[in-house]
Input
Amino acid sequence: MATEEHITLVSKLFTDSQFDYTNDTDHRDIVDHISVTILPHVPHGCPPPPALMYAICNIMKPKLLLGHIPELLEILGHVNIVHKQSVKEAKAILTWNQYYSKNPSPTASTLSSTLEDQVHSMLVYATEEQKVYRSIVNMFYELDIHPTFLHGSPEVFWLKMTTYFPGQFSDASEDPAMISADEVMHMHSFHYDLSAEEQHDSQHTGVCCAKFARDAARHMEDSAAYCIQIGVPMHTTIATLFPPPDVPTLVDTTDRYLAHVLKLASLLERHFGLP
Output
């Protein structure tokens, strides 16, 4: 793969199922492409979609690095911001195309029917893809909270709970040293521009994580008594009682979401020059 053109390397992550995430040469080629070909041409602090997606895939594959879920969530948040902007631009393109189709102008050209259909087809699932994104984020919250509670320190567990679910389990007014919920939400990309429904879903995940911590603590204190109380065999393990989200399914869902985001972003860049 080292002899291929740089421009094809990042897209290969999403089109070639044989990409070897353990091959150092492949990784060096892609990093070279991002560093030399992409980054010099984008605004400071605005990573392009291929670079963001490569970073996510590097955390998820060949095996998900559980210790890097907070970083993965931040990058996913940036991907979602890119996707929201792409959707906004695509809608504007279709609106202007419709206007000039009805009001022709010698200075404006309209889309071919094929390209119009392509843009429109990408927008059909925009609402659903946003729901998929939030589902992914909430599952990663749970996947991070479970081992942090079981194997981490209470301080780190509480920090993650207040980061993922700001204001839900704490009140900054009771502790002047505590960062307010609004400040936390502005600090992390995965809290960006949440709808009321999305905030409600996130709070539900927070409740599930809190319930897990409460029940897992009871099991750790006296597993036999807890198992008897809930009516399961006495030696039932925590992993059996409180299974975290399935990692292969979560990675696969994330892959499909990223592919959709990249497809729309690439379409806009290829035909309209939009980054």
In short: The two ends are 26 Å apart (CA to CA). The longest helix spans residues 69-102. Residues 1-8 have pLDDT under 50 and may be disordered.
